[in-house]
Amino acid sequence: MSAITRDEVAHLARLSRLALREDELDQLAAQLDDIISAVAQVQEVAQGDIPPTSHALPLTNVYRPDEARPGLGPDAALAGAPAVQDQRFRVPQILGEED
Q1: What is the CATH number of the domain that holds 18?
Q2: Which end of the chain is less enclosed by CB atoms within 10 A, N or C?
Q3: Which GO MF terms are attached to this record (predicted)?
Q4: Could you tell me the residue range of the domain that residue 17 belongs to?
């Protein structure tokens, strides 16, 4: 695998509008080369026969079973409401529209 050169790092710095010193160019060239080598190693290990995973361990559904239950009736739902009108919550008018 080819190493990242100082010129390539300088070019990337210009594109990124970063002002780098000469010593930083050498340092970043070595670091970027290490990063690219590490990514290449991961690509070698991750072959097509390994299924993709989202978690290291298998997960199971922890939710309770979905069972239909009767809901609240209008009287029970409106029991704690401060104001009720025609079996609905009555709220203050906010848009200035007429009833």
Answers
A1: 1.10.20
A2: C
A3: asparaginyl-tRNA synthase (glutamine-hydrolyzing) activity; ATP binding; glutaminyl-tRNA synthase (glutamine-hydrolyzing) activity; transferase activity
A4: 6-45
Instruction: Give CA–CA dist 56/58, Å, rounded.
Output: 7
Query: In this predicted structure, which of 21-25, 35-39, 56-60, 63-67 has the lowest mean pLDDT?
Result: 56-60
Beta strand ranges found along 1-99 (DSSP E): 84-85, 88-89
pTM: 0.44
Is residue 27, in this structure, part of any structural domain at all? yes
Look at residue 56 and tell me if it is in a domain: no
CA dihedral (72, 76, 82, 86) positive or negative = positive
- Tokens linked to 37: 């080598």
pLDDT digits (tens, 9 = 90+) for 72-99: 998 999 999 999 999 999 998 888 766 5
Q: How many domains does the chain have?
A: 1
